[in-house]
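The instructor's notes for this session suggest beginning with a concrete chain rather than abstract definitions. Hand out the sequence below and ask the class to guess, before any prediction is shown, which regions might be ordered.
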Amino acid sequence: PEIAVPLHPIQTSTTINKNIMNKKIITVIALGIMAISMTSCSTGALLSGKTYNITELNGTSLPGSEMSPAFISFKDGEINTSVGCNSIFAPYKALKDGSITISEGGATKMFCPDELREDEYLAALHKVKRYEIDGKTVSFYDENGKLLFKATEK
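After discussion, reveal the predicted structure:
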């Protein structure tokens, strides 16, 4: 009886070299993508898990209310903040290069006294494009480098 043996194409050294080269190119591309994603990912690690008392808004002190000092906290890609009245929350992405994006979020809607400056703070919060950490102080800036507000780590 005859045994049928499947025929395989003969691989030449050129075919083998092309396969090896393709694998090397794919590996280099994959490593490049990993490197880029690691350096530009929205880590926010410098801010993440921290809470800061807001001490200054547009160049003047911001004490918050007696019962609730003004604060901003960063956790799991979301900020939670208040100047002593409404609770404000929004997703954010902060990069190691100091850029930050705070997206539209939500807030409670209680009536707040003017002296808490909540409207002024919300306007500043929407303009934030960069942050800078110096010891326990974080400063937030607009796209032109104007200081919007400062906060000190709790």
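Then share the key points. The radius of gyration is 27 Å. The beta strands are 50-57, 60-61, 71-75, 78-82, 88-94, 100-102, 106-107, 130-134, 137-141, 147-153.
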